[in-house]
Amino acid sequence: MNRGVNKISLLLFVITIVIPWTLSAQSDKSLVRKGNNDFSNGSFNEAEINYRKALDKNPENGTAQFNLGDAMYQQENYEKAAEVFSKANIKGKTATERSDLYYNLGNSMLKAGKAEEATAAYKQALRENPKNDNARYNLEYLRKKQKKNQNKDQKKDNKKDQNKKDQNKKNQDKQNQDKQDQDKKEQNKQNQDKQNQQQQNQDKSQQDQKQGKQNEQQAQKISKKDAERMLDALKNNEKKTLENLKKAKMKNAKVVKSEKDW
Question: Taking the C-alpha atoms of 210, 215, 221 and 223 in order, what is their torsion angle to the nearest 10 degrees?
């Protein structure tokens, strides 16, 4: 933590007006002094106890409120310290005292992790006292830190966007690859179907050719038999015809007797 954040104003208000020496007034006043001694000795828990006792006696004791916040801050109870500082009575306090109060409130808020509230408190401290260099330093520190965080967040967002783009591209590439694989698969299937069809056509053509050849051979075989039968028929017909002709000649022939007496 930087110089300004580590340093907290430990201004212990001094009552400058005369108040009646009543028992109650003397009691809360003495308790504040006792708490201040404990605070100076580093006994912050004891100091807190005495400041609370003082406030029990006099809830409007602004000094006890302010110093209670300091004691709780030193015990690293930052949220409770901020709560005490934000409720402290600032009536009748000087601009410097009010500025110190807001400065301490800013430190408590910053330590509690509430950057926006801390920024607002430091700004108010500077409004009360523009010469409060610690508040100015811490405010500038906080602004730079916030800017750095914004740049870091921006880089993170940019990286997230880039990762998202990369993932989208990766998904798109995968989709494209899947589509290409599917198209290739479909093309291979079509090619295989085409090859199968061609093979089937070729097999059918070969079968047809084989069947045609068998038919032709069968036809040739039948034709040869028919030719033989026809040849036999012709031979039989020719023989029969010759016989018929021979018979016809013999029938039509005349017997010639010799008139010469031998």
Answer: -140
Domain with 35, as residue range(s), is 22-137
Pull the structure tokens for residue 240. Answer: 């029969």
- Domain with residue 91: its CATH number is 1.25.40.10
Statement: residue 17 has pLDDT above 60: no
The reply to whether 156 falls in a domain is: no
Residue 71 lies in a domain: yes
CA–CA gap between residue 67 and residue 81 (Å, rounded): 10
In a domain, 214, yes or no: no
Per residue in 168-178, pLDDT (tens digit) is: 888 888 888 88
Q: Among 8-17, 109-118, 184-193, which range has the highest average pLDDT?
A: 109-118
In a domain, 203, yes or no: no
Q: If you write DSSP's letter for every residue of the chain in order, what string do you get?
A: --HHHH----------S-----HHHHHHHHHHHHHHHHHHTT-HHHHHHHHHHHHHH-TT-HHHHHHHHHHHHHTT-HHHHHHHHHH---TT--HHHHHHHHHHHHHHHHHTT-HHHHHHHHHHHHHH-TT-HHHHHHHHHHHHHHHHHHHHHHHHHHHHHHHHHHHHHHHHHHHHHHHHHHHHHHHHHHHHHHHHHHHHHHHHHHHHHHHHHHHHHHHHHHHHHHHHHHHHHHHHHHHHHHHHHHHHHHHH-------S--
For 172-199, what is the mean pLDDT? 85
- Per the structure, the count of domains in the chain is 1
